[in-house]
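Quick one, tokens below:
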């Protein structure tokens, strides 16, 4: 079910996938929106109830004047307050992964467990890639053709725009967001104390294996690294293995030292 709330006169949208289970907050990456987590929500039900935010400038949420780190984290805090939840697991992919662990670092009393999908403690994304995206097309099929292999990763964000088709995100806003995301976030990552699962795609061009292992070593609490045969968007490339890893982590409790690295091929 799609729902809305307001933060400083801006409308933020989210999808509550429902069910009787315990809530899990989910934060998508750039070029995506809350609906990207529909397969995960189905796989985790009925034990877990996924509630996914359309982050500022994405999906059905309003565009914003700023996309700095503190802006995103403040939105997550407002989302949590709006839902009136206690300590809950938080999951995030890419942009959403950094937002998730920065939220956990700044609001430790609100996060019971953390799942970070394929993003590092140091981010150096090439925002120029975004400039190469087609701005739109006369038809949905035309946009799919213009994007080529990328279309399957962006299709949840396709929207009618005027006489044609484009995205639910703005390309200029995305570049501003990517520039603000880049940087060294070790201090906040290393201060996270709740149980944490870091999921890395073995074909990822975003999170190197050595960096992922260093993240586990420098984590303040119990942390586990799971590597899955996938690219950067693990939940898309290997949805069943991704969901299984998340479900196992959420139900298994604190991480033992012999569980710190796992591989799923």
């Amino acid at each position: 079910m799609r729902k809305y709330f307001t933060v400083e006169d801006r409308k933020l949208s989210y999808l509550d996938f429902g069910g009787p289970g315990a809530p899990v907050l989910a934060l998508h990456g750039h070029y995506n929106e809350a609906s990207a987590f529909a397969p995960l929500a189905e796989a985790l039900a009925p034990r877990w109830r996924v509630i996914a935010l359309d982050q500022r400038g994405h999906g059905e949420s309003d565009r914003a004047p700023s996309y700095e780190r503190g802006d995103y984290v403040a939105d997550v805090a407002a989302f949590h307050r709006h839902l009136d939840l206690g300590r809950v697991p938080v999951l995030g992919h890419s942009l959403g992964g950094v937002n998730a662990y920065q939220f956990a670092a700044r609001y430790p009393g609100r996060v019971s467990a953390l799942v970070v999908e394929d993003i590092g403690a140091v981010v150096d994304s090439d925002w120029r890639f975004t400039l190469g995206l087609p701005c739109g097309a006369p038809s949905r099929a035309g946009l799919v053709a213009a994007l080529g292999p990328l279309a399957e990763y962006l299709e949840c964000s396709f929207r009618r725009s005027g006489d044609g088709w484009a995205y639910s995100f703005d390309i200029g806003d995305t570049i501003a967001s990517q520039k603000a995301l880049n940087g060294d976030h070790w201090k906040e990552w290393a201060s996270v104390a709740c149980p944490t699962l870091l999921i890395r795609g073995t074909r990822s061009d975003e999170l190197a294996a050595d960096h992922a292992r260093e993240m586990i070593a420098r984590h303040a609490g119990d942390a586990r690294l799971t590597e899955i045969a996938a690219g950067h968007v693990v939940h898309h490339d290997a949805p069943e293995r991704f969901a299984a890893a998340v479900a196992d982590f959420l139900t298994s409790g604190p991480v033992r030292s012999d569980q710190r690295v796992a591989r799923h091929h």
